[in-house]
Amino acid sequence: MLTISQLAAYAGVTVRAVRHYHQIGLLPEPERDHSGYRIYDAAAVVRLIRIHALADAGVPLARVQELLDAGPEEFADGVQEVDKDLRAEIRRLQDTRKRLARLAAGEHLALPQSVVDYLDRLRGLGVGERYIEMERDAWIMVAAQVPHLIDSVIAKKHEQLDDPDMVKLYSLFKGVLDWSAQDPRVVEVADIVERLRNRAVEAGEVGADGFDGQFVDLLDSTVAASSPGAERVVAILEERGWRGWTRIERVPADRLNTELPPS
């Protein structure tokens, strides 16, 4: 007859593990001797070794009892099920590791790869890092708002970067956040944006973007608050009959005169 310490030693587990197996019902509680100590026999050693072998192989303790009591065919089927579950968990952990590796790059936090690639392309055009950070934060919100559309939206942005006017526009953004409202480049930016918008309207490329009005207002307010120069660009576009930045829309002529502030 064995004490709990001897049982644990024979099976290659700790006394604490034996007590845990008792608590969850995997290992039946033995009788106690006259001194109150548990006394174990060979059957307990065999069962404990089998429990330990299954647990060490990755079988969840919740399924160990099922396998211990199964016949050969049921045991084989049960092991296959456990293996399937483990393979799924391995894939999940591998995906998690990949996401963690991407997060180490910083910009991948909450951003799909398509947006990261787009921001890198802007860097290649010489766009200032402060502006990149502002646009990155906007894309984080956009990706969360319309995750199913983000890749197609970014594909369209890449197409727009083939337009010399768009390249010129971004080249001006090197220090845009430091511009004053009187900086002459403010008007140049407004001119380019207006040309781009006119061409988009003529090409019939203006349509729904999937954003609700409140979200558009949030993005626009972020741009306007970024610098006096950015706020002035928006104001100039409004004076010319265009409203907004995220979703630039033509203001009807009959509303333009009543909505513009007095000069």
What's the average pLDDT?
A: 84
State the helicity in percent bands: 55-70%
Query: Low-confidence spans: pLDDT under 50, at least 5 residues?
Result: none
Structural class: mainly alpha
Q: How many domains is the backbone divided into?
A: 2
Query: In this structure, how is the largest beta sheet organized?
Result: 2 strands, antiparallel
Order of strands, main sheet, comes to 1-2
Task: Write down the overall geometry.
Answer: rod-shaped
E-strand count:
2
Strand fraction: under 5%
User: How many H/I helical runs?
Assistant: 13
Radius of gyration: 33 Å
Cα end-to-end separation: 102 Å
SSE sequence, one letter per element: HHHHHHHHHHHHEEH
Q: Summed up, what is this model?
A:
By secondary structure, the chain is mostly helical. It is 65% helix and 2% strand. A hairpin with a 5-residue loop joins strand 1 and strand 2 (249-250).
